[in-house]
Amino acid sequence: MRPYQDPQLPVPERVADLLGRMTAAEKAGLLFHAPVGVGPNGEFAEQSSGPLPTAPTTAAIRDLNLRCVSLMAPVAACPLASWHNRLQELAAQTRLGIPILVSSDPRHSANHNPLTSVASGGCSQWPEPLGLGALGDEATVRDFARVVSAEYAAVGIRMALHPMADLASEPRWGRTIGTFGADPELVGRLAGAYVEGLQGPKLSSTSVASMVKHWPGAGPQTGGLDAHFAQGKDQTYPAGLYELHRSQFRPSLDAGVAAVMPYYGRPLGVPGLAEVGFAFDREVVAGQLRRYEGYDGLVCTDFGLLTDTLLADGTVWPARAWGVEHLDRSERALLLLDAGVDQFGGEWCPEVITGLVADGLVSQQRIDESAGRVLRLLFELGLFENPYVDEQAAVTIVGRPDFVAAGAAAQRSSMVALSNPSDLLPLSGGIRLYTEGIDPAVAARYAEMVDHPGDADVALVRIGAPYEPAHRLPEAFFHQGRLDLPADQRDKLLNLCATVPTVIEIFLDRPAVIPELAERAGALLADFGATDGAVLDVVFGRARPRGRLPFELPRSMAAVEAHPEDLPGGTPDPVFPLGHNLETDHWTASLKGDPVADPS
Fold first, then answer.
1. How far apart are CA 274 and CA 266, in angstroms?
2. Per-residue b or e along 368-380, where b marks 16 or more CB atoms closer than 10 Å to that residue's CB
3. Which of helix, strand or coil describes residue 10?
4. CA-to-CA separations, 583 to 327, 521, 540, 543, 587, in angstroms, rounded
5. Are 228 and 277 a contacting pair, CB within 8 Å?
6. Which residues are paired to 34 by β-bridges?
7. Which of 175, 227, 335, 445 counts the highest number of beta carbons within 10 A?
8. Average pLDDT taken over every residue of the chain
9. Contact 554, 560 (CB under 8 A)
10. What backbone phi and psi angles, to 5 degrees, belong to 155?
């Protein structure tokens, strides 16, 4: 047995022994965290098949020496567990047998933006983090993270590229859906609880490592445009609240988070910071994160800072190297290493690093520093002792009934009762119901369905928060732009409200400007990721909405546009303030015939 294979030795000794046996190319491979695909039956994906490119699996492990990969495919538990074990077998056949760390974006909610999340593949379904922010309960977040950890680990995912500790201060920001909201007294604590639930008291063979993002806070995007794209590269701080955003990460750091991801955005006008993407700035990473916060864990860039991306339609998506666009790949990598970064997310070009070493631009000591952090994490997670998963157990753990039930309960309880001026809610069973945006087969379990609003006792309409659709991928995946309803949709809803008492239920993936609906609707509810059955259970009193708004709903677009991007809340006279809800202790079922609700 080689010393690094001896679990009785301290981890630092094992890391040092293994580093001493590795070639420059093997060390360079550790510095990359590449996306990989999976075939529907668990096949290795050697070619890209989706809208975004992925690394060829076999070559990435065998030839490029990569050991950290991000899973980009929504595959069911059985084939995914089998894929994972075969991936580890491939790694075991290499010279040193270093195991693979598989990571994933969120898989437990309704957001299917492939740049920020992955469809579930059978995992239990929960509200978005905004819904957990609406509940505002650290214990619930910790319990949710334990479910994520169990379902991830069952199929071999041992790193979660979440949570987001970003403060959602700019209402138009398209990443708001992945945050815990805009309450600076709550967001950081919930992110820290999430890390605790994923990792446990310390990293071990039962942990899923967490990568908190996006240091030092991605919320203050200029105009709410996202920094995945050149038009959203800037972050601004008109209210001077840079430190408030950065402070949200401290509970995660205190919880021992395994990794930190800086954001793409470049800060404008922040004293002491360069106007370049956060990961490129030595003051942000080596200074504020490592020296000031005392963090010695892994730092991985957000995906795609080095290499332009050729999309499936033939267009080129520029690397998100904001402020240093003029540098080539090697120069960008050199700047990132100097800033204190360890891994390059979304990339698979280790030849860039070996070239820098060969040219004398980066020392072997600097490479060892970052490679050592990666190896330390692999050792702490117990992957050298047993990287494999039980394929039969995976099928029983992923989507386990108690996990599903807990997610379904959270969908319901996280909803927010915004208005109910005439006590229209909860509805009674036996009524004639007109619906839009709801599966009629599900609604028919609760009431007599009618096809025309004029024949109904009540109308129930589900809508999404407004946004301005982009016309090209990948920007079309993001909900950005205006928050008010298009005139035709607004007028149609107001006409319906004038025809029949109307319950409007809105999915808030970010704030909405809906003063007219608040004034005219018979009742207004909000969800943060819920099935039709969950919504109907709340509407008919079978479940109580307990959430509080995790951000405010502004009065007008003028108020939004005048609002400082870094200030959480504070628009004048919001329709509903941060933390708003109605008391629903009286919310009891009054169903006739006791229809069977959707169990999801």
1. 8
2. bebbbbbbbbbbb
3. coil
4. 56, 18, 16, 13, 9
5. no
6. 69
7. 175
8. 94
9. yes
10. -105, 5
What percentage of the chain reaches a pLDDT higher than 70?
A: 96
Cis peptide upstream of residue 163 (ω within 30 degrees of 0): yes
> Can you spell out the DSSP letters for 84-122?
HHHHHHHHHTSSS-PPPEEEE---SSS---TTT----TT
Q: Kindly tell me the burial class for residue 282, based on how many C-beta atoms sit within 10 Å of its own C-beta (0-12, 13-18, 19 or more).
A: middle
Q: Is 452 left (phi over 0), alpha (psi -120 to 50) or beta?
A: beta
344/351 Cα distance (integer angstroms) = 13
Would you state the structure tokens that stand for residue 244, as one six-digit string?
């408030």
In the block, residue with structure tokens 């520093």: 369
Distance CA 18, CA 12 (A): 10
**Active-site choice (302, 527, 532, 537):** 302
What is the reported pLDDT for 263?
Answer: 96
The burial of 538, by beta-carbon neighbours within 10 Å (0-12 exposed, 13-18 middle, 19 or more buried), is given as: buried
Asked about 302 being catalytic, the answer comes back as: yes
Q: Which residues pair with 503 in a beta bridge?
A: 460, 523
pLDDT band at 3 (very low <50, low <70, confident <90, very high): confident
pLDDT exceeds cutoff 90 at 151: yes
* 565 pLDDT more than 70: yes
Specify the length of the chain in residues: 600
What would the 3-class secondary structure string for 230-275 be? HHHCEEECCCCCHHHHHHCCHHHHHCCCCEEEECCCEEECCCCCCC
Q: Which helix (H) or strand (E) holds 299?
A: strand 298-299
pTM summary value:
0.95
**In the predicted structure, residue 595 carries a pLDDT above the cut 50:** no
CA dist 55 and 68 (Å) reads 12
Enumerate the H helices of 296-346 as residue ranges: 329-339
Strands of 118-195, DSSP E:
157-160
Of 377, 233, 363, nearest in space to 305 by CA: 233
For residue 575, how many C-alpha atoms fall within 13 Å in the half-sphere facing its CB?
A: 21
User: Exposed/middle/buried for 200, CB within 10 Å: 0-12, 13-18, 19+?
Assistant: middle
For strands 316-317 and 309-310, give the pairing.
antiparallel
Question: Residue 542 has which token pair?
Answer: 């079978």
Q: What is the DSSP string of 400-433?
A: -HHHHHHHHHHHHHT-EEEE-TT--PSPPTT-EE
Q: Which two tokens stand for residue 385?
A: 């002792």
- Give the list of residues 6+ apart from residue 137 with CB closer than 8 angstroms, or none: none
The C-alpha atoms of residue 580 and residue 582 are separated, in whole angstroms, by 7
- Give the 3-state secondary structure of residue 506: strand
Crossing angle of helices 138-154/401-413, nearest 10°? 140
| Peptide bond just before 564 cis, omega within 30 deg | no
